[in-house]
Amino acid sequence: RGGAGAHSGGKMASTAAGKQRIPKVAKVKNKAPAEVQITAEQLLREAKERELELLPPPPQQKITDVEELNDYKLRKRKTFEDNIRKNRTVISNWIKYAQWEESLKEIQRARSIYERALDVDYRNVTLWLKYAEMEMKNRQVNHARNIWDRAITTLPRVNQFWYKYTYMEEMLGNVAGSRQVFERWMEWQPEEQAWHSYINFELRYKEVDRARSIYERYILFTALVLVHPEVKNWIKYARFEEKHSYFAHARKVYERAVEFFGEEHMDEHLYVAFAKFEENQKEFERVRVIYKYALDRIPKQDAQNLFKNYTIFEKKFGDRRGIEDIIVSKRRFQYEEEVKANPHNYDAWFDYLRLVESDADAETVREVYERAIANVPPIQEKRHWKRYIYLWINYALYEELEAKASKRTRQVYQACLELLPHKKFTFAKMWLLYAQFEIRQKNLPLARRALGTSIGKCPKNKLFKGYIELELQLREFDRCRKLYEKFLEFAPENCTSWIKFAELETILGDIDRARAIYELAIGQPRLDMPEVLWKSYIDFEIEQEEYEKTRSLYRRLLQRTQHVKVWISFAQFELSAGGQERLPRCRQIYEEANKAMRSCEEKEERVMLLESWRSFEEEFGTPDTKERIDKLMPEKIKKRRKLQAEDGSDAGWEEYYDYIFPEDTANQPNLKLLAMAKLWKKQQQESEAAAMDPDKDIDESQT
């Protein structure tokens, strides 16, 4: 029973425990959000702020006897040793431990800690520095030397060890020891600053010769070891010599530097420094030579500072010519950049050549011309060659007028003429300039040969005209006739050529040949300016006083064209011909013209004819003829017509003036009705005006 009771009691206990495990969840009555919301960001920020809160300092402990001190030391050392044992690689724990021992004047213990730390990480620079500083602070000089020796032997590329070591020896007054350390350092071929530190060390003790030898060793080291030696080291060496008044040595250093870098690795800073050194020595001619030498060899884009210093120098010590040379050099550099960017920019070449011609020797000018003409246009189209051909022309004129080299001028002309693609196009100007040059050289056969070749290869109107003009000046009229014949075979439609040919024959007194030429000309099926040709032929016959032939010409011309100007010219000719019959003849021409032009659509031309006829009658006519011509004059009226746009839509109305001739009025009764309507409208307007202004009628009646 007891067992059963126990069993039942255990079961009840477990049931009770089971009931206790179920937590009671409180029911939330108000599920609305709180007025003040707390975010996760706010929680994190508050936690961070509380971390920064200062904890109250530990209570100060006063140690009153040796036992307490030893106990304190023991506890502290145990703490440090535990930290080190937890993480041996954290060097800060070792340093704190050693510094604590140092503060207790336990130098031997601190030294032991540093040695243990170096066994862990001997490459830690801070550890060596702290160790050596501790020894120096406690005046343990030999220990410090020992540590520095170990440091520079273990880590020779850490410059800080060398600097500290040499500084310590110098502070101790051990100049020889410091120099020895520097020498050991230089064997490792350190960076530039280390060499300069050594040089400054020697200069502090007035050891100029030693400093010079160090400079020499450093310059030799940079020349042999470095791939790209720097100019500034040579400049510092030269300034060192200049500072100590060894001017000859300084000049020698600059000259060695110029020779060492050569023309492949020229640097403007070296030449600027060299020039300033010579300027300080009052060697102005040397300065100019240096600047000009550098400017001629250094690429222009790398010589901006050089230009600037040269300009300043010339303004200070030079004359006007020197300043102009600088300006010319700068402009030459700009033009070089332009033609380098675009070799076919012929305008830039023209400006460049103009500059070079004004201030350069003949060889330099020729070189620039050769570079310019080498840029032949890539496309064989005349519009691309029009600017280029003037390079050749200017080149030839320069050789002839400036250089006085006739052979080179001839070569330039011949080279240009060989270059031109004459089958596609040519430049008559070039042929004519060459021929004129040969004439100036009194070499007439070559000039004729050149022009004959041009006409044979690429005949042009301008070439024929130039050749004919040349032969006219030489009074070679037979050659002129032959050339005109060739010219007219080449271009029979050219009226100017026919006229000039006829004028030549007229001047020579061969009237029949001139008339025959005119007859051939007007018989051509196609002419570019036939009206000019006919006028010239008519003027020619008038000059010869062949009036019947002139009338015949006018009649032939009127068979081809009924232009009003031809009729007016014909009438004026009859008026100026003289004789008793001139007025009837002139009036008859006007009559014929008026009849011929009645069917003409251009009414303005007929009006022009009638105006000319009326002017004639007013000067030479009788009252009857004047009245007759007045009756023939048309009436000018304003009309409107509809306009259409290009797409066929209406574009509005346009006003224009039209002419109504009397015979048109007789033929069209509508026009008579229109005139009567206009008269009626005019009378109506007058009557309305009179009704609106009765006072005016009274005044008029009284008057």
From TrEMBL:
Q: Name one GO cellular component term.
A: precatalytic spliceosome
The coding gene here is: Crnkl1
Keywords for the protein's UniProt record, in alphabetical order: mRNA processing, mRNA splicing, Nucleus, Phosphoprotein, Repeat, Spliceosome
**Where is this chain's protein located in or outside the cell?**
Nucleus speckle
Gene3D superfamilies xrefs: Tetratricopeptide repeat domain (1.25.40.10)
**InterPro entries given in the database record:** HAT, HAT_PRP39_C, HAT_Syf1_CNRKL1_C, Syf1-like, TPR-like_helical_dom_sf
Q: Which organism is it from?
A: Rhipidura dahli
Q: What are the BP-aspect GO terms?
A: spliceosomal complex assembly
According to its UniProt entry, the function of this protein is described as:
Involved in pre-mRNA splicing process. As a component of the minor spliceosome, involved in the splicing of U12-type introns in pre-mRNAs.
List every stretch annotated Disordered: 1-25, 683-703
Domain of life the protein comes from: Eukaryota
The UniProt record lists the Pre-mRNA-splicing factor Syf1/CRNKL1-like C-terminal HAT-repeats domain at 92-382
Q: Identify its protein family.
A: Belongs to the crooked-neck family.
Specify whether Phosphoprotein is a keyword of the entry: yes
Q: What is the name of the protein in this document?
A: Crooked neck-like protein 1
